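USER:
Working in pairs, take the chain set out below, taking as long as you need, and write a paragraph about the fold.
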Amino acid sequence: MTGPGISRRGLAGGGAAALCLGRARPAGSAPAPQGARPMRIASLFPCVDAILLRIADPGQIAGLSRLAHEAEVSSVATAASAYPSVADNAEALLALRPDLVVVSAYTARPTLDSLRRAGVRVLEVAPQLTVEDSLTQVQAVADAIGQGTRGRDLTARVRAALDRAGPATAARPRALVFQNAGFVAGTGTLIDDMLQRTGFRNMAGAYGLHGFGDIALERVVADPPDVLLAGLPGPGVPSWGDRVLRHPALLKLADRMRIAPFPQGLLLCGGPVLLQTAPRLAALHRQVTGGRA
């Protein structure tokens, strides 16, 4: 970990659950007066970055999380480049003069204490592990920033995308998702929920994995899934996903298992990110099944 808060490895592994958008609850100073719209919002949570960039007025965003600009873990790195990134550091946050800061369970306690003392309104997001919870989070953030209508519109768009991504056949190929740090998404995760919704069966359950963890490649070779998704960062960045795609033992399974790269930034968050994740998984399902039941 490179400092307080969430590290890149934390995002891609055990801490990835924290990126599955959760309920929001006030944590700190009293809420703004009824009807007041925050005009300087800072986010310490990459998944909230994606929400703010979809529904906030550009002038409302004072700063985004320190990982917002990193394409390896952010699905909105290009759009985020127009805004400063801020670390989990009270001095840096207060320099932005925010009237609302969105934090997570990983935010350092001294940071929260300093924000409270300064009278800054804080919204805390908690880990959630389903698509429905991620959509609840979208609306909670939207309401908190005075953009409730945009939140409802965004949620409706995501639901429509999920409906379109539903499988057209009864075939349920077995899938396994390796994230960039080598962690596997087991049952009880947002990725597991998305696999089910798009017609796959998460092979991690057969391996006995719940949540995020490690699975030895020997087990994969002995009982391979129909499709293995390897999370990849941006072009030219060495990754564990690259090693999966090129591993000799896995390549020998080419006649039994499809190995497919998948953008790492689409494996970590729900909400608006699902507008990209859902059609990609649906297309993969059609490729694997040939569109036949």
Summary: The chain has two domains: 8-162, 169-289. Residues 17-35 have pLDDT under 50 and may be disordered. The radius of gyration is 19 Å.
